[in-house]
Specification:
Blueprint: E1 9-14, H1 19-26, E2 32-36, H2 44-56, E3 60-64, H3 70-78, E4 83-86, H4 92-102, H5 124-134, E5 136-141, H6 144-148, H7 150-154, E6 161-164, H8 166-172, H9 182-198, E7 202-206, H10 211-220, E8 224-229, H11 230-243
Parallel strand pairs: 1-2, 1-8, 2-3, 3-4, 4-5, 5-6, 6-7, 7-8
Helix pairs in contact: 1-2, 3-4
Length: 250
């Protein structure tokens, strides 16, 4: 098991492709940072620069890709990502496809290139050995179909962890954003139960940076948690500061 998954690990999400943001967040003490290519305007070139900064700060750089696309996975891994977070994985076949795209043969089908990850050729043999055991494949569980197929998804060799996408999962239940609904709460309990049974660590994305909720999720058994994201942290801090002086400017 990857060292990152042998303990409670807390990461965060980056949606703004501005290098100083990655540097600030990587210096804050997160175990990992995920660059979001699904819901942002971050380009592949931007992502490589963010990966480099996060990596040089000693934090694990992950990338949430736009879709379960082998071409994008290959390019982002070649750029130096330590692993990918794959959205909307709803079946065993989709989980197997994600692993295959990350790993070189014989474990997978990823084609071999000489880019940043391989030291532009100098460290190819070292990287070849590293990717077999240390590249991370994290599936997002964000649909009721994934919950129903969870055991087969998490049983796929090479799936290292999962992370719940709360908004999409609640939406698939017909309760978008209603995280206290019976259906959503039962789904989360089922996910935690299956993951414990199979020994696959995982967690949830706490979109709004709330330390009370963070502690609650840890107590529930989540061990791979995304805490907030750059955009929400910026928005909340701005609003909180202005609310504290509400009425003084009138």
């Amino acid at each position: 098991m990857h060292y990152l998954l042998q303990k409670l690990s807390i990461g965060s999400w980056i949606q703004l492709g501005y290098p100083p943001i990655a540097e600030i967040m990587a210096s804050a003490g997160f175990d990992w940072l995920a660059i979001d290519l699904e819901h942002s305007t971050i380009s592949l070139r931007d992502a490589e620069e963010l990966i480099r900064i996060i990596d040089l700060k000693g934090v694990v750089p992950l990338v949430r890709i736009a879709s379960n696309n082998a071409e994008q996975i290959k390019r982002i891994m070649d750029a130096g990502a330590h692993g990918v977070i794959v959205p909307m994985v709803n079946s065993q076949d989709e989980a197997e496809a994600a692993v295959s795209a990350v790993k070189y043969p014989p474990e997978g089908k990823r084609s071999i290139g000489l880019a940043r990850a391989q030291g532009y050729g100098v460290r190819f043999e070292e990287y070849f050995e590293w990717q077999r055991d240390h590249s991370l494949v994290v599936v997002q569980i964000e649909h009721i179909k994934a919950v129903e197929n969870l055991e087969s998804i998490l049983s796929v060799p090479g799936i290292d962890a999962y992370i719940v996408g709360p908004y999409d999962l609640s939406g698939s239940l017909g309760r978008p954003g209603q995280f206290d609904s019976k259906e959503y709460v039962e789904s989360i309990r089922h996910i935690v139960s299956v993951s414990r049974k199979l020994g696959v660590p995982g967690g949830i994305h706490i979109v709004e940076p709330d330390t009370t909720q963070l502690l609650q999720r840890i107590e529930e058994g989540h061990r791979f948690i995304a805490y907030g994201m750059d955009t929400r942290m910026l928005d909340i801090m701005c609003r909180t500061g202005l609310e504290s002086i509400h009425g003084l400017r009138e």
